[in-house]
Each structure stands twice: as C-alpha cells, then as structure tokens.
Amino acid sequence: PAMEHHMWHHPATRRNVETLRQDGATIVESERGYLASGAQGDGRLGSRASILFAVRSVLGRAGQLSGRRVVVSAGGTREALDPVRYIGNRSSGTMGLALALAAVDAGANVTLVATPAVDGERWGGPVVEVESATAMQQAVTGAVEEADVLIMAAAVSDFRPRTPSARKIKKQAGEDTISLELVKNPDIVKVIEKPGMVKIGFAAETDNLMVNAQSKLVSKGLDMIVANDAVRTIGSDRSQATLIFGDRPPAELPELDKHDLAARVMAEVTRLVHDRERHA
Ligand code: C5P
Questions:
Q1: Considering only CA atoms, which residue is closest to atom 9 of ligand 1?
Q2: Is the pTM value of this prediction over 0.90?
C-alpha cells in the first residue's frame, strides 16, 4: 500500500488491511517519510528491497528449509581505535548477503547479523546491526538460541585495540611512530556450541588454502567450510570455492557469481539439516 498519512491511519483502511491479512495476503508494510503530497508521515511505498524481500519470502515459503531458522553473519567487523577511527578489512558482505537471500529462497526464517559494510538496500529484510567482533558475538549468541543453522560468513577481526581512546587520538609533536596494543577477539563460531545445530564457516586464505581450511573445519567444530582464495574473493562479485565437509570428500566448484555459489552452499546446508533431522 502507498497513500497519505491520514488515509493510511483511517479506520476504514485499517479494517480493510486487516481483512486482507486474515484472508492470507502478505502486506509489504508502507514506510515513514516523504509522501506524494510533499508532507511527511506514514504511508510511503515500501522500498524496492523490502518488496523484493517479501516476494522472495512468499515464493520460498514451501521450500526445503521451510520452518527452519538460519542465522547468517555478513560483512567485516570494525574495531574502534577512537570515536572516529577503526581497524577493519575489505569484506563487502556480498557473500553473506547472498547466503541470507538463498536461505530466504529456501523458505528459512533468516536472522541477518550485519556490519555497516552490508548494503541493506540489497537485503530488504530485518537486520541486526553490529560493528565490532564483540557486538557480533553477542548478537549471534542471542540469535542462535532458536536456530537450526549458523553460517558465519562475516570477516571477523582476529584482534581489537586493547583500550580504544575515548577521544580522538592526536598527533604529538616529535612523535613519528605510535604503537597499538591489540588483544585477541573471541572466535565466535568456535565457542558457540549448540547440539544439533549445523555450523558453517568460511576460510579465505592467501597461502596453503586447503590445509588451513581443513584444520579450521576441525578446530572450529564445523559441518562444512567454504574455502576460497582471499585476494580473489574479497570485494569481488565472483568466487571460486571448494566445499569441505566432515562427512564426505570435498567438492571443488568452478568460479561462480556469489549468488550462484550461495545457492550451491544452501543445497549442502539443506542436506546437512535433513540428515541431522533424520538422525535426531
Ligand atoms: O580463523 P579464521 O578467521 O580464518 O576463520 C574464518 C571463519 O571463522 C569464518 O567463518 C569466520 O566468520 C569465523 N570467525 C569467527 N570469529 C572470529 C574469527 C573468525 O567466528 N573471531
């Protein structure tokens, strides 16, 4: 729906929208903002992303992950140095976003935990916004309580400044170098242990990709790890990945658009979820 504020809040409109809802229609909620008249208020047509998200949810709802809850983390974390600066990485969040959308297409109820790198206009659904690894850990830990699947696609900073400055760090006369002390962040996917939940991780490496990915699969207690070359995948719309499992030989995929890769990953996630349910 899209209309003027007073029309949207009129009792007749409210009644009619409620009737449509009870008849099973999905309503893409209108938003607050500038209206056609130039006034501001409720009733503005939902964003293109929110309309697309609703369409995907409806078309996917009878899918293979229908009724399952999937938590996806996306984007690179930011570790504050002071109120204006942070240590970050080049992750664009494209892969996490593609996975979250693929899970929606498969009928899952998706919680997206995203850093500012993730373009909300390409998602359209509800999002838990975080910046630091610590905040991401808190959000993911809360979200997995109800979850059947955790996909950690986020590029989580391994370290953070020990004590972020409360004020902007200033240059000092005569000081040509400064030192930062960094402390290790928790390994989110490793410390989350939930019996029965399928855990998926990513490995982006510049060296010894397969060996490193294989050891992360084991040390982090994952059911599958998506291994790819760090330099070629970060910030790109495409990726060449190998899927490594605990229960079967690896599958080397061709270079794919990240949305196509996400669909392949989601097919494996579906298999792992169904296997687990059969053996539960
Ligand atoms: O150890 P590395 O950072 O290469 O591991 C990558 C995988 O582990 C990714 O799935 C990433 O989201 C996850 N991770 C995490 N918490 C960290 C570091 C990485 O969950 N502190």
A1: 202
A2: yes
